[in-house]
User: Fold these one by one.
Assistant:
Number 1:
Amino acid sequence: MNRKIMTSVGTAAVAALALTGCGGGDSSSGSSDAEQADGGVSISLAGWDFASTPEFQTLADAYHEQNPDVTVELKEYPAGNDYDTALTADLAAGTAPDVFIVKNLKNYVTFEEGGTLLDISDVAGELDPATGGLSSMAVDGKTYAVPYRQDSWLLYYNKALFDEAGVDYPDGSWTWDDYADAAATLTDGIDKKDVYGAYLHGWQSTVQGFALAQSGASLDGGDFSYLAPYYERQLAMQDDGSQPSYATVTTNELAYQSQFGTQKAAMVTMGSWYIGTLVAEQASGDADTFEWGLAPAPQADESTTGMDNTPVTFGDPTTMGINAGIDESKVAAAKDFLKFAAGPDGAAALAEIGITPALIDDTVADTVFGLDGVPQDDLSRFAYTTHETLPENPVGPNTAAIQTILGDLHSAVMSESDPVDDAIADAQERVANEVG
Amino acid sequence: MATSVVDDHDSGALGLPHPVQPPRRRPRASLKLRNALVGWTFVLPNFAGFAVLTLIPVFLLFYYSMTSWNIFGNADWVGLENYSRLIGDKSFHVALGNTFYYAAFHIPLTIAASLGLALLLNQKLRGAAFFRTVAFFPYITSIVAIAVVWNMLFSPEYGPINQFIGTFVGGELPGWTVSKDWAMPAVIIVGTWRYMGYYMLLFLAGLQTVPAELHEAARIDGAGVWQRFWNVTLPCLRPTMFFVTVMVTIESFKVFDLILVMTEGGPGQSTLVLSQYIWQKGFEQFELGYASSVAVVLFLICIAVTVVQFLYNKRRDA
């Protein structure tokens, strides 16, 4: 009766497989033990790539120090765009952590409309109104996530290359036309092959972020003509050779860190996160050692230039929200953690590791400019502390879809496949046809 | 298909003697059942994984394509609304057109290149094994590395490809991956280069089954190289050719990773293909219901093309 034995063995094996397969899923969520043995509370926080992104651990530690009875446990997700995908899957399955980072502002509405975010208007109400990006988080008068970090885009310039070309340093009065003129003079003045006056990275933000913020247009207004002057200027700069062409930047995967850091470009516009990177790379030798400075981003016209005005720039806040599925007993602790992270104490902790918090006060500025290698001139400090930063991805239901279309516009225009006006007309037609 | 189940009644037709006494029904049935059970038990572990990870999601796909699901909350039934939206969606039309553009060139080019390589490397020449390995390399190389290197080769200003072309022709050189007109040809070239080694291997295996006697007979009859290829090699390769055609076709309709890492669908929408459009709608804009309907269309295209190929092959078989 060999067959019989085989059949029963086989069936048993399958049953065992099925049972173990089913049993594996339950134990992993791990967030249900709200009450710890010592009576403290534990809340979980979603972040990404802890090895190279220390901000989550920093906030968790700093908070635990102030509130020893609350422990913030970190749950690591993949970095890059995979963070949103993995977190979304966990949110849909109901296994996401208590507090999570809304990494990309364009998905904020998706999370909010999906009912995954708790209404935390009370937390937002207690924060300093000067917290960068806070006001843009309101949806129908309610806030579901608060910014703890906000990078703003600035102009970085290489003082050595400016000296070499005999060009005056930026003085805070620059419009984009001044910037383009300086780039051309610098390119001519620096007598080295493959060294350019400016570098424009391949991202659509590098053109569209400034255009949206400085023109005062609205992203979902259906009219993209505000982009035209910004693109015309960048195309002219790429044509006259004052910056590497988009084709070269994308096909050779040029990195802004190496272009500016190894003195291939005298100027670059980039987010304030690059301050910490540049300081670290100069210290490690990955970047050349040279004197550099910060200036406000070039402006559309003279109405916002000069150190007695507030320059307009862009940058998306990175925000934190509470999972709507959080255990009732942990809501108070989670809200308190958010208040801490977005408040002055969290800001001070973040500044110490070189991260630009959403709330920039004197303590933060002193900490950042106290780091070795950060430029000490007045304009650099002014540029870092004074700006009106508007979001690149204003909160709205159609932002993600519109940005996809504008991304296509960017590659079509910058590769000089389509003339600016045609590409804008095409994008407007697509938005009317496909969005909302 | 050619094989068919031979049941009890056919045994006479196959020339087997009828059993003198028909066996009693009962033990026979239980033996059959037991055999089936044993078979099922062996298949089940694999089938369970297939069902959970592939089969059920495919059925769910059809359901989701008729909902407005955005990953969170309920999937609300909208009937054929997603499909009527597809009809007016210009980006979908662009993606569909680009997918056919890619397939129309990628399929014949890959078959020609891999068959040519196979014929070449089927010769008894020194180092054939080495060259076979070389031709197979692209297939096992990481797609991201391929994209980075090819993008540099295609770089319009500094890339070696344009510098090489520039020594022969003057005037404006192709912009390759950063030009609306040339991005698709560039992707097709890389796609063909990447897959030809793999299909070459299949053709090489097929070539081993071509009887040498047929070639010899043809040669004695005075057939030239071309005639022998056309009348001996190709007909003998037909089963392999059929398999390769089906595989290349499906592979080119669902092309995704290569496009994503080389051009991200750009410049503009010049290399946007269906599977990337599905990804864009589903995982960037969280319109999973709508993305599902695009996926259903892609699925139907693949099925339709495969069925046509099957029918064609069957007619030739008869």
Note: The domain at 35-151+316-360 of chain A is CATH 3.40.190.10 (D-Maltodextrin-Binding Protein; domain 2).
Number 2:
Amino acid sequence: MSDKLLEVKNYSVASTDDVPILHSLNLTIKKGETHVLMGPNGAGKSTFGSSLLSNPAYKLTDGRVFFEDEDITDLPTDKRAKKGIFLSFQTPVEIPGISLYSFLRAAVKNTGSPLTGKLFRKKLNETLKVLDLKQEYLERDLNVGFSGGERKKVEMLQLLMLSSKLAILDETDSGLDVDAVNIMLKGINEFQQDKTRGLLIISHNMHILNKLKIDKVHILVKGHIVAEGGSELIQEINKDGFIHFETQAGDCNV
Amino acid sequence: MSDTLAKNPSITDINRNLYDFTKGEKDVEKLASGLTEEIVRQISAKKNEPAWMLEHRLKSLKIYHELKVPNWGPDISGLNIDNIVTYVRPNTKMAAKWDEVPEDIKDTFERLGIPAAERTSLAGVGAQYDSELVYHNIQESVAEKGVIYSGIEEALAGPYAEMIKEHFMKLVPPTDHKFAALHGAVWSGGSFVYVPPYTTVEIPLQSYFRLNSPGAGQFEHTLIIVDKGAHLHFIEGCSAPKYNVANLHAGCVELFVGEGAHLRYSTIENWSKNMYNLNTKRAKVEKNGVMEWVSGSFGSHISYLYPMTILNGEYAKAEFTSITFAGEGQNLDTGTKILHNAPHTSSVVSTKSLSKSGGTSTFRSAVTVTEKAHKSKTIVSCQSLMLDDKSRSDTIPLMDVRCDDVNVGHEASIGRIDDAAVFYLMSRGLSEEEAKTLIVNGFANPISKELPLEYAVEMNNLIRLEMEGSIS
């Protein structure tokens, strides 16, 4: 087995009503790497993230996707999750009538985590502490009435409980105050400890991006990857924005 | 998601092994099918009942012939009363010990978990098999308080005969509708409960109705009188195996809640899908009394079921909490009626309905606030969830308010299962079926948590069974 975690080749995605969104993307994330995906609003960043979990709201029109060298192009959402792909949702949905606790148990069980019985409870208590979440949250209905910040923390809680291999964090930091962002950073750092894992972070938050070890940055504009590089790209965008790249993308056939 | 369903329109039949077993008919006594004066007289004669009851039956029969079949609900033309056997007597007398109940019948109730529940969490149990009760028992400590829980026919021959006569079919007169009249003519079996003033029955009583005979009708009558300041929780369960011929259930439940009394009436109805469930339930609540209905309707081919509460005294309260689940081949028309007939009365109606695999569920509510009911409050909330494109859900709320200083609230929502929620759960490793089951369970949860624990478990199991194989 190579050290490749995720690889997309010639990856093109459209909406179910055939509006093209992503165009021939090529991207490889190796074990132990942290990648950042940046781009202006509407570039297709979230579409990319959720299509990696085969969101039925989109369809793959061309290309293949591999996870740990295995072709997973035809696998549905749950099978991909079981392989170890995790998506932290930008806007997690409310599910009334299901407590966060029973949901976590179901998720942990279904993703083949070794956490059972007492181990589960122990890890849960520790993680709650790291994320500064109260025990009471466990009894509340999943995301129902949770603030934006609470929802993001609950996503991070799941990430840390599920022992996935690849985490896609879609704007995990948006709408959070500085303290909450720092808590998220702690969570991400914990995830990064394990060098067999990888991260794809969709974010514009300099506070977060400046504090993380980043291996590669991809700039997505109008569904095309228009630039790639190291963390110096982040500083460039911080200074000049995406205008320069948007002009480039304007030349592409969309 | 909808693509997956569209590609696989055939839904495998639902596994209902838990309820769907038949016992054959050993030495049962069956009257001829159909409805004639002779049959009504035969039923009455077998019961050795007071003369007024025979009169009541014959009067009801006459009314039955005069009334028309309702023309506003699901189609019941598949029900032909000439083919229905109105009276099927199991080959046993009513027993007070399970050991005395014939093996096949005892086994039926054991598989339904009744004797086990009686040992752990009930104060008394009545079990009816086809037209007659086969078992009735009440804990000694409860009986010592003066609580009466017995077969209604047995009670009709005892010291409470007069009380029964005063109340029997007074809330639901035979003129109410055609099937109330039918009930009045051929009723058989059912329970009678009397709770004396200021007496609290700590744990529930339960009657279970099982219809085993193909092509038969079940017409049990439940009469409950909760006297001043008394408390009772009564549970009713019903089920039947599936046959290819129509079965009919036209029971009647009459509940009298005295001043300051409290009655909770819980039902889990899981008739088989060849059953016409045309049941009538009504409660009258006096000053400061509280009536709570908790109802789960999962079974039957067609249901007409609208328990009614008459709030007859000041500050009387009603709560109606229900869930209806209509699957393939089911048209469940359910809801409630509330009559505010005194000042300061209040009602809260909270219902959920689910439909799937082409099932239809309709919710009707009719809340009437009379001129007398000043300062009354009513809130009606109904939510419907359709699990696919083939199913149907309707909401028909009626409010008739004849008084201007009342507080009236209503909210309704009808929706489909949220694809984004399914995706979210699947992204955590749950299969599509598990994800949908979890969402449906969550939707039902506010209702199931009102049920006694073993029934909540049963309801969740039923939902799981209903969801099984719904996605390929």
Note: The CA atoms of residues 106 and 444 of chain B lie 32 Å apart.
Number 3:
Amino acid sequence: MVSEHIRFNVEASTLATRDGFGRALVELGEKDPRVVVLCSDVAESTRVADFKEKFPERYIELGVAEQNLVTVAAGFANYGKIPFVAAYAVFSPGRNWEQIRTTIAINNFPVKIAGAHAGVTVGPDGATHQALEDIAMMRVLPNMTIVSPCDEEEAYKATLAAASHEGPVYIRLSREVSPAITTEKTKFEIGKSVPLWTSEKPQVAIFTTGPMAHNALLAAKELEKDIAVSVINIHTIKPLDIDAVVAEAKRAGAVVTVEDHQIVGCLGSTIAEVLAQCCPTPMEFVGVHDSFGQSGTPKELIEHYGMGVSHIVAAVRKANGRRTSSVWKIFRN
Amino acid sequence: MTITDEKIKELEQKAAAIRKTIIEMLVAAGSGHTAGPLGMADIFAVFYFYILKHDPKKPAWEERDRLLLSNGHICPVQYAALAHVGYFPVEECMTLRKFGSRLQGHPERNRLPGIETTSGPLGCGLAQAAGYAYAARMDKKDFRVYCVMSDGEHDEGNTWESIMFAGNNKLQNLTAIVDRNKIQIDGTTEHVMPLEPLREKWESFNWNVIEVDGHNIQEFCDAVDEAKTFLDKPTVIIAHTIPGKGIKEIEGDYRWHGKVPTPEEGKRFLEELK
């Protein structure tokens, strides 16, 4: 059943995670004079335009220069400001990764990097603008915290949390509107996973990140009378909520991960690394399998790249079948 | 402010001591860069013993002037200057590049007091200095931000992005110093990727440009003072230097960019510096 303070499939949403980011920035601007926003010519589409209008003296335009974006931000953080940098994820961290590594991660400066338009759900813009590698790139950087919110409300809370979090934070954002899952009452804490769907005796644990959570919930609903599952929202990829992941994997005995990202290096990899060490568990990975995207509607692309509800259902069935095989029974005891 | 002849003499002696330490530490390290640090010894001596408002006993003093080193590979000159001015014992320079040392092969901010940022990967220093200067100006701070950078790193796109940014934002509290020694790893700058006309390039990006002999202390101090008088532009001091300055065998030879003296050469060079 659906967890407390979680809803799904109730209303058509008109908001995307980027909207929550923009909403939080305005609030942060009012609360904390140290907060500044740096942007590379994409104020409207990254939703920092409201901050720009309200606090023009604290909005810094970089032009189309993502390498400069993060290095100038490092200078602001070095001085003592809390800079948020807004750009598209394919370019930031895609184009400026080494600058982030040297000037932000090694220095451990509190620069908050927002990577917008992530995932295939960017849609018609095509492969060049669909960041499917951003979390993998950021996850290998020491000192980096990574959040990947599932809806507007969670993105809002994640942005507020990022501002008061020590050190650098990467916030992954989507362009496409996505259904509201969390509510004002849903708790958010960096590094703490959120149960979205619970079963008394789950057979398969579904871990999901970003707006794909909604498809995971639809899959859980569809499987309700058939296979008991739990759905856990991993909004923080790093540091991973290891205790919760291991506990749920042990309880269920089989795992499915769901993400709009290459399956290499993001949520699935992170969980596989932990489970391989703590409790080897059969796993299925729903995500993009070593391919670039292409133009299309978000829905077409999600289906084409195997991240639709039916794909999650199939992955759960497969994982459940493996769970009951004799090889895995040995591990589970 | 006018610098006295006596002070100039004193600074020349400091530069000589810094050069000696550079040779000693590079020989001890067995790897690193020689020509760049020697060429910048005069400028670093002038900065740490005369120009900068700073306190070696309070490296985090909020009102200090900031000097960000962009081309981190010349850090031996900065380490030597920091040591001689009192940030840490000069003997510690001999730990350069060794396991557990605070003196990393390329400087790291969180390891050594006095280092304002981590650098080495080229082309990112000026952007950080510009961000720093912009933030300081927002808060009406009156300290200045200096960025020492190389000519070779003008090959990097990030360098030009930051030149454009600082010029556009009229960061008058920012002064860049370009070590125009005309060498990089594979040859002369004009052979690898020509930079000239460098002055005109900076000017066209809305910077105030001053060219000096980087070994003339009087000229350099005058340029730093002049930079403070420009209230609507950042200033770049293009300092013409001789790489390897002080050691005839090294002077002007790009092959000394990234190699260090053998112990025998070291002895000879130290004699030459006496």
Note: The mean pLDDT of chain A is 96.
